[in-house]
Amino acid sequence: MSASVSAPRVGVWLIGARGSVATTVVAGCAALTAGLNPPTGLVTETPAFADSGLPALASLVFGGHDTVDCPLPKRAEALAAGGVLPPGLPKAVEAELTAADREIRPGGPGPGDTRGEEELIATFAADIDDFVRRHGLARAVVVNVASTEPAATGTALPPSSLYAAAALRAGCPYVNFTPSTGLHHPALAAPAAMSGLPYAGRDGKTGQTLLRSVLGPMFAQRALAVRAWSGTNLLGGGDGAALADPDAAAAKNAGKERVLADTLGTVPEGEVHIDDVPVLGDWKTAWDHIAFDGFLGARMILQTTWQGCDSALAAPLILDLARLTARAHERGLTGPLYELGFYFKDPVGEGPAALGEQYAALAGFAERLRESSGGGTDEEPGEER
Fold first, then answer.
1. I need a surface site. Which of 97, 106, 217, 366 has the fewest CB within 10 A?
2. Closest residue by Cα to residue 99 from 123, 135, 68, 130
3. Same domain for 157 and 220
């Protein structure tokens, strides 16, 4: 499905580059390129995206920022021990993991960091510029996969927004796979609009909310009255620790509530509880309890259980988003890519909320890219959306 391996190389700059998701992205891409595993979960490798001009998986070059110093090969070994990566895969792709690890630069601000916002943004942007220049990349996409931070308050830029500002300064498309503020900070609205860059986000839809975006429309379309919708998440790892902070959990839950509001037309009673269970590591369990009324007021209940591995669910979506956003940049598209709402709880731009409608928009986007890659275009290169 991918383009020729001889095509120009494209960078994927990961914020949180030594975390579980980023490590799975790098190891997974190397495994797929080597033919060690099938592209399960990678939507861009399905027939709907054939010949859409997406960069080849083999053309992707990885780097990023992080505040931790655990090398990617060691991190991959830990993920394999936890059942996230297949046994033996870290050793099989050790060279690719080591190469990516060499391209990870210190993030920030860390404890005792005295640098101001402007210095941090300039440093981060210079790191990205240097990465693109040294590897002779056609372009690079910055993707935030760092742990969730509390919602921003006041005028100060939180770390996610510092990295987003650096992406704009480096002339790179930006994807926010987290619920963190990123480009949503008011101070970045004007720079984002003037940048002429495409961007997408936020908060990747990988589990409980993915299911909600299917079930919500089902209730609405069948005229069933949802009275209450409650949920619980049990998870460990870095996300579990980060979401133990009530403010970070509130930022995460905002996207879950938006899906219900958009698909049901209202937010029913109930809330989602997030519990940090460190022993679960990268695995999570999500329960939903839905109370609804049927014909003549008959009261009924639907309960669901979702058990999955966060990194294995997220990694193929990161590869999809990097390829799609890079191609959009190549085509000269600018602003929010609402067609990528299929991937997010809280998507930017105006688009549908139901998963089926979101997939139709995504498939239409693929067709649009296919037409332009085949010579006939529906717009001139560089034309704004």
1. 106
2. 135
3. no
| Residue 345 counted as domain residue | yes
Q: Beta strands 104-106 and 198-201: pairing type? A: unpaired
pTM of the predicted structure, to 2 decimals: 0.90
Q: What is the largest CA-CA distance in the chain?
A: 68
Inter-helix orientation angle 355-373/310-330, to 10°: 40
Domain co-membership, 327 together with 261 = no
Q: For residue 235, give the nearest of 264, 205, 275, 266 by alpha carbon.
A: 275
Angle, alpha carbons 68-32-48 (nearest 5°): 115
What CATH number is given to the structural domain containing 37? 3.40.50.720
Task: Give the number of C-alpha atoms closer than 13 A to the C-alpha of residue 320, restricted to the C-beta side.
Answer: 30
Residue 45 lies in a domain: yes
Number of domain units in the chain: 2
Asked whether residue 115 is assigned to any structural domain, the reply reads yes
User: Which range marks the domain in which residue 299 is found?
Assistant: 208-308
Pairing assessment for the beta strands 272-276 and 225-235 based on DSSP bridges: parallel
Per-residue pLDDT of the chain (385 residues; tens, 9 = 90+): 444 445 799 999 999 999 999 999 999 999 999 999 999 999 999 999 999 999 999 999 999 999 999 999 999 999 999 999 999 999 999 999 999 999 999 999 988 899 999 999 999 999 999 999 999 999 999 999 999 898 888 899 999 999 999 999 999 999 999 999 999 999 999 999 999 999 999 999 998 889 999 999 999 999 999 999 999 999 887 777 776 677 766 766 676 788 888 899 888 999 888 898 988 888 999 999 999 999 999 999 999 999 999 999 999 999 999 999 999 999 999 999 999 999 999 999 888 989 999 999 999 999 999 875 543 333 433 444 5
Q: How far apart are CA 254 and CA 346, in angstroms?
A: 8
User: Has residue 283 been placed in a domain?
Assistant: yes
* CATH code of 243's domain: 3.30.360.10
Cα 35 → chain centroid: 24
| Cα-to-chain-centroid distance, residue 212 | 18
Residue 344 phi/psi, 5-degree rounding, is -130, 150
CB 137 within 8 A of CB 10: yes
Both 186 and 226 in a single domain? no
